[in-house]
C-alpha cells in the first residue's frame, strides 16, 4: 500500500495533471502548519465545503455543433486585454511557500500575460516585485492601517510605480477563527514551539530552501510594507503591537481612499447587492464578489450563490470580479456565466508555487487555461462574452 502511494507521488511529480495534484504535492512539501494555513477554512469549515458544493451543483448546458475549433478565452479588464479572465489574488505571506514566492508568482502571472495583485501583507515590497518581475501588470491590495497616514503612504508608493488598480479589502474586520492553526501552532507572528520545530524538521526541503535562505540572505522574513521602524521579523509580536490594521473601518474610509486614489478602485469582499450599490455610489470602479475562499466568516453565503443578484443590481455599471474555490477551468466558466467579468485565484497558484516556484504557478495557470478552453468547447461557446446566464442549467421541477 505504501509503495503504491509512493509510486503515485513519483508519477505526480513527473506530470501533475490538475490543481488537486499540485495541492497534494504542496502538502508534502510544506510544513503542516503552513499548509493548513493556506488550505483550510475557519471554525467548522462549513463555508469551505459550501463553496465546493455550490460550484459542483452549478451545471452548464452543452450546445452542439457550434464552431468551437478555437475558443477565444481572452477578455478585457480595466482596458487591458487578458488572455484568460484571471488575476492572481492577493495572499498574505505567499513569500513563505517558496523562497521569494511573491516574485515567482508575479513572474508566472507576467509570463501568462495576466495581472498579479501585491498584498499589503506581502513579504516582498511592491518596488522589489516590480523590479524583479518586470513587465508584469501589478495591482495592489489594501488593508487599511489604524494609522491612516501609513495607508496614504502605501497609495503614494503604488501610484509612483504606475500601479493603476487597487483592491480595497473590506471583509476582514477581525482576525478569523482558524482553529486548525490554533491547534497546529502556526500563526503570524510565528511562535517558536517544540511542535513547530519538529514540523520544520519533518520538512527539510522547505526548511532549508526557504527559511534558511531567508535567514542567510535577508534575515528573518518580515512584512515588507510595514514601516521600517516597526519592521521586525514575523516571529516577533512587535509587528502586530505597533502596526495595527484598522479596528474601525467604515464607508467613510472607503470614500477617503476614493479621494486619494485616482486609478481604478475595487471593493473586495462584497456579498450583497446593497453593498455593491453603496460602493458604486461612492465611485468604485469595480467589486470583487468574494467569500474570501472560506477563510473568514464561516456562515457567509458562497460567492457563486451571491453573484447573480449582485450582477443584476450592478447591471453593467461597474466591473465585477469574483473569487473563491476555483480549482478547474470550468469553475472559471461558472463564475463568468453567473455574472463575473473575470476571476481571482488564490490557493490554486499557491499550490503550484509551493511545489515548483514560478514554473509550478505557471503550470497551474496553463492547466486552468486549457481546462477553460475545453469547457468552452464542450458548452459550444466560441467567445468568453457568449458565456452568460443562459448557459446555466436550470433544473425544471418534474410535472
Ligand atoms: C488570502 N486572501 C487574502 N485576501 C486579501 O484581500 N488580503 C490578504 O492578505 C489575503 N491573504 C490570503 C492568504 C492566503 C494564504 C489565502 C489562501 C488567501 C484571500 C484571497 O485573496 C482570495 O479571496 C481567496 O483565496 C480566493 O479563494 P481561493 O481561490 O483560494 O479558493
Automatic annotation (TrEMBL):
InterPro entries: Aldolase_TIM, Alpha-hydoxy_acid_DH_FMN, FMN-dep_DH, FMN_HAD
Keyword Flavoprotein (UniProt): yes
UniProt: glyoxylate binding residues: 37, 143, 292, 295
Keyword Transcription appears in the UniProt entry: no
Catalytic residue list: 292
GO annotation terms (biological process): aerobic respiration
GO cellular component annotations of the record: plasma membrane
Residue stretches making up the FMN hydroxy acid dehydrogenase domain: 11-397
CDD domains (alphabetical): alpha_hydroxyacid_oxid_FMN
Record's protein name: Alpha-hydroxy-acid oxidizing protein
Amino acid at each position: 500500500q505504501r509503495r503504491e502511494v509512493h509510486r503515485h507521488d513519483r508519477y505526480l511529480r513527473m506530470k501533475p495533471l490538475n490543481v488537486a495534484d499540485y495541492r497534494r504535492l504542496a502538502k508534502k512539501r510544506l510544513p503542516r502548519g503552513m499548509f493548513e494555513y493556506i488550505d483550510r477554512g475557519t471554525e467548522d469549515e462549513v463555508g469551505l465545503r459550501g463553496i465546493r458544493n455550490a460550484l459542483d451543483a452549478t451545471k452548464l448546458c452543452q450546445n452542439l455543433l457550434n464552431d468551437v475549433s478555437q475558443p477565444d478565452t481572452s477578455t478585457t479588464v480595466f482596458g487591458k486585454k487578458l488572455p484568460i479572465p484571471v488575476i492572481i489574488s492577493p495572499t498574505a505571506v505567499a513569500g513563505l511557500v517558496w523562497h521569494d514566492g511573491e516574485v515567482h508568482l508575479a513572474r508566472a502571472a507576467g509570463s501568462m500575460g495576466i495581472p498579479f495583485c501585491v498584498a499589503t501583507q506581502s513579504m516582498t515590497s511592491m518596488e522589489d516585485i516590480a523590479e524583479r518581475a518586470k513587465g508584469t501588470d501589478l495591482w495592489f491590495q489594501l488593508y487599511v492601517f489604524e494609522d491612516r497616514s501609513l495607508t496614504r503612504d502605501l497609495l503614494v508608493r503604488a501610484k509612483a510605480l504606475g500601479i493603476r488598480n487597487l483592491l480595497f479589502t473590506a471583509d476582514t474586520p477581525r482576525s478569523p477563527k482558524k482553529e486548525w492553526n490554533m491547534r497546529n501552532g502556526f500563526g503570524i507572528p510565528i511562535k517558536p514551539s517544540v511542535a513547530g520545530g519538529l514540523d520544520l524538521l519533518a520538512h527539510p526541503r522547505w526548511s532549508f530552501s526557504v527559511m534558511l535562505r531567508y535567514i542567510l540572505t535577508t534575515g528573518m522574513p518580515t512584512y515588507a510594507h510595514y514601516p521600517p521602524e516597526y519592521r521586525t521579523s514575523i516571529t516577533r509580536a512587535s509587528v502586530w503591537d505597533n502596526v495595527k490594521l484598522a479596528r474601525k473601518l467604515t464607508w467613510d474610509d472607503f470614500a477617503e481612499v476614493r479621494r486619494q486614489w485616482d486609478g481604478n478602485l475595487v471593493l473586495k469582499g462584497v456579498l450583497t447587492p446593497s453593498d455593491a450599490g453603496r460602493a458604486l455610489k461612492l465611485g468604485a470602479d469595480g467589486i470583487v464578489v468574494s467569500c474570501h475562499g472560506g477563510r473568514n466568516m464561516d456562515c457567509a453565503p458562497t460567492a457563486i450563490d451571491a453573484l447573480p443578484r449582485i450582477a443584476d443590481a450592478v447591471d453593467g455599471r461597474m466591473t465585477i470580479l469574483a473569487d473563491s474555490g476555483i480549482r478547474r477551468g470550468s469553475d472559471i466558466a461558472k463564475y463568468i456565466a453567473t455574472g463575473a467579468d473575470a476571476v481571482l485565484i488564490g490557493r490554486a497558484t499557491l499550490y503550484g508555487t509551493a511545489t515548483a516556484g514560478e514554473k509550478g504557478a505557471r503550470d497551474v495557470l496553463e492547466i486552468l487555461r486549457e481546462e477553460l478552453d475545453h469547457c468552452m468547447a464542450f458548452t459550444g461557446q466560441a467567445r468568453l462574452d457568449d458565456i452568460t446566464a443562459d448557459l446555466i442549467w436550470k433544473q425544471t421541477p418534474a410535472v
